[in-house]
Amino acid sequence: EVQLVESGGGLVQAGGSLRLSCAASGFAFDDYAIGWFRQAPGKEREGVSCISSSDGVTYYADSVKGRFTISSDNAKNTVYLQMNSLKPEDTAVYYCAADMVPGRDCTYYRGNIMGRADMEYWGKGTLVNVSS
């Protein structure tokens, strides 16, 4: 059974940092890309970042580029999202998701919007609340 479990969310002041974790199980972690999405109240879910564990390729949305860093620990089947210089507009539920399309890595999202339909499995999310 494929499982993705997020952790690390919480309340932080603007300018602060948080590190989210996504622990994956039930599939060959190295073979697929893992993405982070977020959904703020009343807004659509948006793709934030992606990493392909097999080749280290990453993708970042313009809104987080330079502030967020995605990484993976293949030994632990875990993907991290380090979030620095947080802003109130970063407040959202953050989800990790697995892109199970064989052979597709995060390079794909550098020319295509990373959308919900691209991902097959999802975690339940972790809330990030950035106060001003």
Q: What would you say this structure looks like, in words?
A:
0% of the residues lie in helices and 47% in strands. By secondary structure, it is an all-beta fold. The strands form two sheets. Strands 2, 4, 5, 6, 9, 10 and 11 form a seven-stranded mixed sheet that branches. The chain is globular and about 40 Å long.
So what's the overall shape? globular
**Structural class by secondary-structure content:** mainly beta
The number of helical runs is 0
Whole-number mean pLDDT: 94
Distance between the termini: 40 Å
Strand content: over 45%
Radius of gyration: 14 Å
The main β sheet shows up as:
7 strands, mixed
Give the H and E element order.
EEEEEEEEEEE
Q: What is the number of beta strands? A: 11
Task: Estimate the helix proportion, in percent.
Answer: under 10%
Stretches with pLDDT under 50, minimum 5 residues: none
Task: Provide a quick synopsis of the model.
With 132 residues, this protein is mainly beta. It has no helices and 11 strands.
Keywords:
7-stranded mixed beta sheet, 4-stranded antiparallel beta sheet, globular, 132 residues, mainly beta, single chain
Topology:
Elements: E1 3-7, E2 10-13, E3 18-25, E4 33-39, E5 46-52, E6 58-60, E7 68-73, E8 78-83, E9 92-99, E10 121-122, E11 126-131
